[in-house]
Amino acid sequence: MPDTFSMLLFEGFSNLCLANAVEPLRAANALARAQLYDWTFAALSDAPVHSSSGLPVQATPLSSQLSGAYLFVMPSYGFEALAAPATARALRAAAARFDTLVGLDTGAYLLAHAGLLDGRKATCHWDILSQAEEAFPEVIFTEDRFVIDGNRASCGGATTTLELMLEIIEQRHGASLSLEVAALFMYGERAPTLDPNRLIPTHRTVQAAAALMRRHVEEPLTIDIIGMRLGLSRRALELAFQAHTRMSPGQLYRSIRLAHARRRLEETRDCVAEVALRSGYRDATAMARAFKAEFGITPSAARAARLSEGT
């Protein structure tokens, strides 16, 4: 069964925030070739909800007993007026039907107002962080870009929503898929500035390495060259991968290339030899062996299975 997400929208919500929440889920489904995630748009009433730029969304009323893995609370502007008794009652009722509640942008303010963050760590848009700390002393507000505390999560705005979604995808379906989604959106393309006081680079360094791998599928780079482009030794890059993904750089690179091969087999009419070349394999037989080890079926069987799905 797919994980179900409900995006609770309020008048004046941010288009960018919504896109950064939903598009990674869509991309993960496409990259995994499976329906890992479903999502719905929700509101407190049955009237259309408009974004801050005027985009209308016809959402399902939250009161219609929506339930699932995640409820994302997305108010953006006008959050103070939304912090009303009716909103708090609706959120408290929904808390019993969703596994995890998430406050995006100023959403943590509404969750805190409803008493759903008491004793928890949280963050929100930094423009209102001090205001939230004063209004809700029971909540441990921090300046982190996103926070996950048990079955509560929060982030500070539109760009940090993408970071939170990548973390959720990693927790639910592994580092390899999360890194591929990040690379698809060119997230982590530029290597972060390394702190000389840190022995192991940050997760952003791993994302930058994954982005390089995805851009060099047909003509693969060596792991040494990837490390050099990021200002790291091979050993330092390997340590980063061990710390953040429990994979080696080579294992991730192979997974990215084979996933690319499978997409080409399923979406094009290229012969297996051509797919192998486009995936960085000069030997189609070697690609076929690696493909079967990765997916449990041969390239021809993968293509045949997708064709049968379309008939």
TrEMBL record:
Coiled-coil stretches: none
Pfam families: DJ-1_PfpI (PF01965), HTH_18 (PF12833)
Keywords: Transcription, Transcription regulation
Signal sequence residues: none
Keyword Disulfide bond tagged: no
UniProt-listed PROSITE patterns: HTH_ARAC_FAMILY_2 (PS01124)
Gene3D superfamilies: 3.40.50.880, Homeodomain-like
CDD domains linked to this entry: GATase1_AraC_ArgR_like
GO molecular function: DNA-binding transcription factor activity; sequence-specific DNA binding
Protein known as: Helix-turn-helix domain-containing protein
Protein source organism: Gymnodinialimonas phycosphaerae
Taxonomic path: Bacteria, Pseudomonadati, Pseudomonadota, Alphaproteobacteria, Rhodobacterales
